[in-house]
Design a protein that fits this description.
Elements: H1 3-82, E1 87-95, E2 98-107, E3 115-117, H2 119-122, H3 125-142, E4 151-154, H4 165-179, E5 183-186, H5 190-194, E6 198-205, E7 208-216
Helix pairs in contact: 1-3, 1-4
Length: 223
């Protein structure tokens, strides 16, 4: 091989090296940029994890706060209506990434030991009626939405025995004064009907509903 050919080959070799070094430099720049992106993504992931943890804590706190508020309202209703040491409890369990709530009623029944039962086993339908009524009120009053309308009830104490009906009326009055909420109630119970400030009687005559005003006080309609 002549000297000129050697020089040409060497020049091509140097050119190839410079080209490869340029490619290497570009690759290193790309790698550096990607590593920077990876670091930024890791920071974002860490931030999102922290924010998610905060949201979870806030949700747990809000859930516990709502749970306590609901338990207090329903327990207060049971106490007013049945004049007993009945307590309403919400037991929350997490299974398969889902929360489930179990409603319980506890009482000592005048003894020393606390007994916890399902609502329907505590005192029958009457307790279930009052829990159902109080739960609706509790959910309405603890809701994040502004629900300022009246509370409409249809036979709210159908299975409550006669000896406790006056206490149901007292509880509804407590709801009115505590939450400043109007109550519109449909009932066949004479005592509950007469506890209202404005009472209408509805009868069917000749296939038509006839509405008659039975009593009215000077107070606004609240029951």
């Amino acid at each position: 091989m002549t000297e000129n050919k050697l020089k040409e080959a060497y020049a091509l070799f140097e050119e190839n090296i410079k080209r490869r070094e340029g490619e290497k430099e570009k690759l290193e720049q790309i790698i550096t940029a990607k590593e920077k992106e990876i670091d930024e993504i890791k920071e974002k992931i860490y931030l999102y994890q922290q924010v998610n943890e905060i949201y979870k804590k806030a949700a747990e706190y809000a859930r516990e706060k709502s749970k306590v508020a609901i338990e207090n309202i329903v327990s207060r209703a049971l106490s007013i209506v049945f004049s007993d040491d009945l307590k309403f409890e919400v037991e929350i369990k997490r299974e398969r990434d889902k929360d489930s709530a179990r409603f319980l009623v506890s009482s000592t029944y005048g003894g020393e030991f606390k007994i916890t039962n399902e609502p329907q086993e505590a005192r029958g339908g009457g307790v279930v009626d009052i829990i159902s009524l109080a739960l609706r009120i509790a959910l309405l009053e603890t809701s994040k939405f502004n629900n300022f309308g009246p509370l409409v009830l249809d036979e709210p104490a159908k299975h409550v025995s006669g000896e406790h009906i006056d206490n149901v009326a007292a509880f509804l009055r407590t709801v009115i004064t505590t939450f400043n909420r109007q109550i519109i109630m449909v009932t066949h119970n004479q005592y509950l009907a007469e506890s209202g400030d404005i009472v209408y009687e509805v009868k069917i005559e000749d296939g038509e509903s006839q509405v008659k005003l039975k009593s009215s006080s000077e107070l606004p309609a609240v029951l």
